[in-house]
Amino acid sequence: MKPRDQERRSTKLLGALLDPTQNGFHPWSAADLTGILRHFLSAPLGPETDRLAELSCMQADQVCAIIKQSGATTFQGLLGAGTPSSEALHLTKNYAKASIGSEADLPRDVARVVYLWTILKAQVDTDAPISSLSRQDVILEARRCLTSQWLPREAVEALRSLLER
Amino acid sequence: MHQGPKKHTPFPDTRWSLVGRSAAADDEVRREAIADLVDAYLPGLRAFLIKSRRLQADLADDVLQDFVADRILTSQLTRHADASRGKFRSLIVKALNNFTSTKLAQWRTANSRAAEAALVAVEFMGEESSVDHFETEWLNCIVQRALESMRHDCRERGRDDIWDILELRVAAPNLEGAEPVEYDELVRRLKLDTPRQAINLLGAAKKAFTRHFRKAVAEQVGDENVDAELADLMRMATR
Question: Residue A31 is nearest to which of B182, B196, B234, comparing CB atoms?
Fold first, then answer.
């Protein structure tokens, strides 16, 4: 750190913590975003039940039933299922959508990928679309997501596979 | 009168005890207020003398001792501060600047070769940059107080995780230039089940720091001035 930077270290910290125009923290690096998406995919659905219910304006027991019926125990299990539950995908879409604006539960970049992934998955593998977005728009946005350097390999492969079908 | 440069030593404790006792003779509350005042502003004032007025460290310490004794303890300076505490930083640094000019002129007049040798440069660099050195150092002190207060509070409440995430992701990278601990490592260290827990923990850490920072600022400028002061500090932080 240069001497003047060292001297101004506290102003940097305050800029990171108190500036209302920032999220408030040291920005997530590409490696962090990769780790966060992997962590999200492997996270058990159970502890997220209340939050999923809250963001979809449902009761927790309803969400529990949907998750149980889906047969998935993790978000990865849900997004990778051959015949996924459209209701469970809808819950996940709402979960991700909430963070695109506010970064409430996920960094915005990660939330955007999860959001498009759920919609694309529902369009390709279910008979019940969970979004009013057209297939063309979803494909366009998904391709844009694929240009993100931080996207983990397994996510790239899964999205490409859906786009090719 | 200053007897020329001497080997640098920090202010002896006895000197500050003397300062405290001298003021206590007037008023206990005033003594405590002045002790706090000196404690809060001293690093910034010292940085101002060394970096802006280009005094050597030991000479800066001498000037500061005299300034505290002559201008803070015996003059109206602190009463002005009571009337407008939020502006005290400007007042004290201007007073110190004037005091330093007078002192240097006196020492030069005395033609002390030793004193001359101590003055690396006495050109005033311009008010903005000079005040900037002082204010930056003052801000460093406030931030350190807020961090220490938060660390202590988190430990007491058994919320080491809140302190740890702030330190690993925000404080160390910004204050020490350290690489922020990567997310994967953060998850392992703090045993986080989901990304939401990490985001929430960061949010809690931010709120906690903001609360402690506000408290630290209020201790310096008073509750009634804290909002204006915080806005001023934010301008400093983002310029």
Answer: B182
